[in-house]
């Protein structure tokens, strides 16, 4: 799974102008990027709090609160990007955070 170029497609609201993408060299980096996006949002909403903690349910609520989020992951065997949905992203962020905790 290492070194699989990953593009995260997202839309933060119903407004089509909020569509954007983030690209990463690996799935792991993409999951870090999604967590970082959420952490920046928490800091923006709570500027006076120095150490903000959250659990996986909070992260899932953030992901579910976006108008859209999906991933395109490059598969070297078929030389094409495979699409993955929001549920897959939530599973992968959980696995990623679990690895970081151990």
Automatic annotation (TrEMBL):
Pfam families: ER. Signal peptide: none annotated. It comes from the Eukaryota. Keywords: Cell cycle. Belongs to the E(R) family. May have a role in the cell cycle. This is Enhancer of rudimentary homolog. It comes from Liquidambar formosana (Formosan gum).
